[in-house]
Amino acid sequence: MKRKNLFIKLITLVVASLLLVSSLAGCGDNKDGTAVSFRTLDEIKESGKIVIGVFSDKAPFGYVDENGKYQGYDVYFAERIAKDLGVEVEYVSTDPASRVEYAATGKVDIILANFTVTEERAQQVDFALPYMKVKLGVVSPDNALITDVEQLSGKELIVVKGTTAETYFEKNYPNVKLQKYDEYADAYNALLDGRGDAFSTDNTEVLAWAIQNPGFTVGIDALGNADTIAPAVQKGNTTLLDWLNNEIETLGKENFFHADYAATLASVYGDAADPDNLVVEGGKVE
Asked: Cβ(214)–Cβ(145) under 8 Å?
């Protein structure tokens, strides 16, 4: 009987150990030290699906068209990622303020939502190589055009929460009153309705919007430091991160991102932008 009980205890111990090892597989740590799980590259391939967070209301980078299909510069890239992985893609709509959370907690495998690389964000997620470069821009009505940041003193500037524009103006121009919105669509509607004096976000975005909305002009087209845009994954997911970096380097050899620009942005920008000033090939910023 004693041998039987000992055998049962040993089996229980082995099973518990196996469960512990299993629970630790594919895990990382949040900034607060709590464990969170992510899907490794092999697990993604085995599942036949990759989950990618994109914008649904931020044309021409990520948006849903009249047929309910995701489109845009980031989506074009996402489709290629899925193709080269040999899996289907599932899109999850995100907003600027939730991008870090979605990547950091494993709600998505990759965030591909016009995500600007910053030191603060890099403490919470792992960024892959960049595929685009931007600065901030400011768009305003033609009849009250803002051409210098000092003109914003005492005025109301529209920004979207969780963006680099919000951070930049809070740090450098505290005398500018910020009118904050959760969604880009709401921010642009506020500008159209005259609820604010101007709107600031990446220059690539405000330029595209102004072209499509007569009566508005990007009076400040390059503000702050030059930033890069890159995919992000959960901290510690090295298998997926390494694959992404290799993918971006490989795609650079075929000028993939210039092709992406031609397919999704060229018709929007026309002659107003030079793709060489926006596109990054092979993860190398020139």
From this structure: no
